[in-house]
């Protein structure tokens, strides 16, 4: 790890191969190379690839049972590859929502502090480059690695699924999968930015890793418990009016939506199940006269647009935080 | 000359005397007797006379029996002891009975007819038959109810009686002269048939089902029905009065029954109300069964009068609820008169208003702008 070789020492062959020799992209290329060769990335990608193939296998063995008559999602058989499970192994979506944060954290938790500890940070910054190139390049490189990995996995699932079930996806199904992968990318990017932020704040890599994992555990395990506790305390009485009950349900759902995983789950569920027309409690007035039918992709996107906005905004805010704290950071040579 | 006349008269008187004494003597010996000597019957009837031959002499009399003066076309038959007889022998002081069956034909004029049963030279029995009405030799095809009324979708069920008044069994071909597109079926004994076999002097009930064509106009239609054989035929004329049919259609000019709408927005749909029936429609009311909080108004909401085959354009304005979910809703629109109604189901795809989408975009742009500000502030030190 670390940019121990100076930028000028990059061979002319590399320069000719990369279509740009801008210093920023040089750092990005180097970072990507570092990531791909690092053992933790290889271990993680093997774990994720294996679990995803396992979930694909369960989906393929259960896809026959997943087809039900009068199912408005029946026309979207291909999307079921990503969502169907028989309970023994979680589906692809669940694996991504569970392992995605871990991937982001593992790529970012020591981005800055390990370089600082090794003393390479001051060396790089002594090069004639802008200071923010480093933090930007770290982020972009990790994002490219994650993006390639997610798209490869998603397209692998599609490819194997195509071989196994023999039904090609429609253009809309394909676009839905692509949007699902983009949403997953943002979700992982959020955790990546959070861990980069911690890697700037904390001097020890272990501390930042633990802090990240703690937040991840908090949101994926404890947050639900806390919300349930709050919910019990606030729950309306048995004689409450319908509007009170609905208002309570909405409030609880909005509390849950502070967790990025909840936003991600709602977004992916709506994207991969076109029949989902609304998230949250519905009144009878809204349901009356409605007929179960899949939504077009644009409408599905609009349904989850608040979730996507929240996810993207949280990601960008985390990046902004890490950017500011890195720029204000005092970097000394050891 | 005078004596000649006198002689002739004398001979005549003598002859007459001899003849009368002979007749008187025979009458004493053999008599023919039947109780009903004058009978009134309708045409086509058979009369059975029971005639007794009485022998009052003291010797066996052998009398040949003849029927004389039988009107033309009448048939008769004499039977005794199971045989056809023409001569009967009677023991002294006894009587013998034979039956005389006379068939009165159908084709006979009203009036009184005479004929005589005789044992030639011995005795005569004059008989009289009064035919009570004018007889025919033809088929009688009647119906009690030759006129029916109904709308264009009803089936008219006539029942007719076919009476064969000829002397022979007849196989009648049944035919109807219905307008094109109409359907006429005959039922004989409950089964569909195109012909009916009727025994001589028997009747058969024939039911006639008439279905008008689907596009029939209101009015009265005469349908002649023929029952014909090679020798005889009969006709009746049925009349079917079609009252106007009521049929209404509600659709759009292009037949497209789906549209899309943004939640909270209004949308105008052009509708076409079409009177497909043959009668005029009055007071066509337009209404809609819609999801809660939706509004559907029609312009006009009521059509005063629609002549047969005419169309009227109506504009429906749909206002979707602000809380409508994205996806498909069903709205039923109904055009209704007391006579008939029709419903068109509209599938309305609701879209989410883009405003929230732009709001999300705005939030993201603000955040990105914040990052850009950070870039500007810290980036190029």
Structure class of chain B: mainly beta
Task: Give the end-to-end Cα distance of chain A, rounded to a whole number of Å.
Answer: 17 Å
The major sheet of chain B is characterized as:
5 strands, antiparallel
Overall tally of domains of chain B = 3
Count of individual beta strands of chain B: 30
Under CATH, the topology of the largest domain in chain B is which? Immunoglobulin-like
Helix content of chain A: over 70%
Order of helices and strands of chain A: HHHHHHHHHHHHHEHH
Share in β-strands of chain A: under 5%
Gross morphology of chain A is: globular
Low-confidence stretches of chain A: 1-16
Q: For the record, what is the CATH homologous superfamily label of the largest domain in chain B?
A: Immunoglobulins
As an assembly, this protein is heterodimer
Fraction of residues of chain B in helices? Answer: 10-25%
Question: Measured on Cα atoms, how large is the radius of gyration of chain B?
Answer: 48 Å
Question: What is the rounded distance between the termini of chain B?
Answer: 190 Å
The CATH class of the largest domain in chain B is identified as Mainly Beta
Mean pLDDT of chain B: 84
Structural class determined from secondary elements of chain A: mainly alpha
The name of the CATH architecture of the largest domain in chain B is Sandwich
| Spatial strand sequence of the major β-sheet of chain B | 1-3-9-6-7
Domain Alpha-galactosidase NEW3 (chain B): 261-336
Transmembrane segments (chain B): 355-375
Protein name (chain B): Alpha-galactosidase NEW3 domain-containing protein
Signal peptide (chain B): 1-25
Description:
The complex is a heterodimer of chains A (334) and B (381). Chain A is mainly α and 334 residues long. Chain A has 15 helices and 1 strand; from the N terminus they run αααααααααααααβαα. The model of chain A is unreliable at 1-16 (pLDDT under 50). The termini of chain B are far apart. Chain B is mostly beta strands and 381 residues long. Residues 21-27 of chain B have low confidence and may be disordered. In chain B, the strands form 7 sheets. A 5-stranded antiparallel sheet of chain B has the order 1-3-9-6-7. Chain B has helices spanning 2-29, 354-378; strands spanning 30-33, 38-41, 46-55, 61-64, 66-68, 75-80, 83-84, 87-90, 95-103, 111-119, 123-131, 139-143, 147-150, 156-164, 170-176, 183-188, 191-193, 195-198, 203-211, 219-228, 233-242, 248-251, 258-262, 266-275, 281-289, 295-299, 302-306, 311-319, 327-336, 341-351. Chain B folds into 3 domains: 26-131, Sandwich (Immunoglobulin-like); 139-242, Immunoglobulins (Immunoglobulin-like, Sandwich), CATH 2.60.40.10; 248-354, Immunoglobulins (Immunoglobulin-like, Sandwich), CATH 2.60.40. The longest helix of chain B is centred in the N-terminal third of the chain and has 28 residues, at 2-29. Chain B is rod-shaped and about 185 Å long. Chain B contains 2 helices and 30 strands. Chains A and B meet through helix 13, strand 1, helix 14 and helix 15 of A and strand 29 and helix 2 of B. Strand 1 (290-291) of chain A pairs antiparallel with strand 29 of chain B. Chain B: Residues 1-25 form the signal peptide. Chain B: InterPro entries: A-galactase_NEW3 (IPR018905), Ig-like_fold (IPR013783). Chain B: Residues 261-336 form the Alpha-galactosidase NEW3 domain. Chain B: The chain crosses the membrane at residues 355-375.
């Amino acid at each position: 790890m670390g940019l121990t070789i100076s930028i000028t020492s990059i061979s002319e062959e590399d320069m000719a191969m990369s279509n740009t020799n801008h210093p920023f992209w040089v750092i990005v290329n180097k970072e990507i190379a570092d990531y791909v060769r690092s053992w933790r990335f290889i271990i993680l990608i093997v774990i994720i690839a294996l679990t995803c193939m396992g979930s694909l296998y369960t989906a393929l063995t259960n896809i026959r049972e997943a087809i039900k008559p009068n199912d408005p999602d029946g026309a979207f058989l291909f999307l079921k590859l990503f969502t169907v499970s028989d309970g023994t192994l979680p589906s692809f979506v669940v694996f991504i929502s569970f392992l995605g944060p871990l991937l982001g954290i593992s790529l970012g938790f020591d981005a800055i502090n390990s370089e600082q500890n090794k003393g390479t940070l001051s060396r790089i910054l002594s090069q004639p480059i802008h200071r923010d190139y480093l933090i930007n390049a770290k982020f972009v490189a990790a994002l490219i690695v994650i993006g390639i990995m997610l798209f490869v996995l998603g397209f692998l699932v599609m490819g194997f699924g195509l071989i196994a079930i023999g039904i090609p996806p429609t253009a809309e199904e394909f676009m839905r999968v692509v949007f699902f992968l983009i949403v997953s990318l943002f979700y992982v990017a959020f955790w990546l930015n959070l861990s980069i932020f911690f890697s700037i704040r904390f001097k020890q890599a272990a501390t930042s890793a633990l802090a990240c994992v703690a937040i991840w555990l908090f949101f994926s395990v404890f947050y639900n418990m806390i919300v349930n506790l709050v919910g019990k305390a606030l729950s309306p009485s048995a004689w409450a009016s319908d509007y009170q009950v609905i208002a309570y349900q909405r409030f609880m759902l909005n509390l849950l939506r502070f967790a990025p995983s909840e936003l991600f789950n709602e977004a992916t569920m709506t994207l991969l199940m076109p029949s989902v027309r609304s998230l949250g409690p519905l009144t009878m007035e809204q349901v009356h006269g409605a007929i179960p039918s899949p939504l077009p992709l644009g409408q599905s996107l609009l349904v989850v647009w608040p979730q996507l906005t929240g996810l993207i905004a949280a990601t960008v805010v985390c990046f902004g935080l890490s950017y500011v704290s890195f720029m204000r950071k005092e970097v000394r040579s050891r | 000359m005078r004596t000649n006349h006198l002689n002739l008269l004398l001979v005549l008187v003598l002859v007459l005397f001899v003849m009368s004494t002979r007749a008187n003597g025979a009458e004493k010996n053999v008599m023919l007797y039947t109780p009903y000597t004058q009978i009134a019957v309708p045409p086509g009837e058979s009369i059975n006379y029971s005639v007794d031959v009485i022998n009052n002499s003291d010797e066996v009399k052998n009398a040949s029996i003849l029927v004389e003066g039988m009107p033309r076309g009448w048939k008769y038959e004499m039977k005794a002891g199971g045989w056809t007889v023409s001569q009967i022998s009677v023991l002294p002081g006894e009587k013998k009975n034979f039956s005389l069956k006379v068939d009165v034909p159908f084709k006979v004029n009203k009036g009184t007819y005479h004929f005589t049963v005789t044992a030639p030279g011995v005795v005569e029995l004059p008989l009289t038959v009064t035919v009570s009405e004018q007889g025919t030799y033809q088929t009688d095809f009647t119906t009690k109810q030759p006129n029916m009324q109904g709308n264009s979708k009803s089936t008219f069920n006539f029942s007719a009686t076919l009476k064969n008044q000829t002397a022979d069994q007849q196989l009648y071909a049944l035919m109807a002269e219905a307008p094109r597109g109409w359907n006429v079926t005959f039922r004989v004994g409950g089964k569909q048939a195109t012909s009916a076999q009727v025994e001589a002097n028997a009747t058969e009930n024939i039911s006639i089902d008439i279905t008008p064509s689907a596009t029939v106009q209101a009015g009265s239609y005469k349908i002649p029905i023929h029952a014909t054989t090679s020798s005889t035929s009969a006709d009746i004329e049925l009349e079917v009065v079609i009252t106007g049919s009521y049929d209404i259609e509600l659709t759009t000019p292009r037949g497209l029954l789906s549209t899309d709408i943004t939640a909270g927005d209004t949308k105008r749909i052009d509708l076409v109300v079409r009177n497909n029936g043959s009668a005029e429609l009055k007071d066509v009311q337009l209404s809609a069964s819609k999801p809660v909080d939706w509004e559907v108004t029609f312009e006009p909401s009521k059509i005063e009068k629609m002549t047969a085959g005419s169309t009227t354009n109506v504009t429906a304005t749909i206002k979707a609820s602000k809380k409508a979910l994205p996806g498909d809703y069903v709205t039923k629109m109904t055009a209704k008169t007391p006579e008939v109604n029709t419903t068109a189901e509209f599938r309305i795809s609701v879209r989410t208003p883009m405003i929230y989408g732009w709001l999300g975009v705005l939030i993201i742009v603000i955040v990105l702008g914040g990052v850009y500000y950070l870039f500007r502030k810290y980036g190029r030190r």
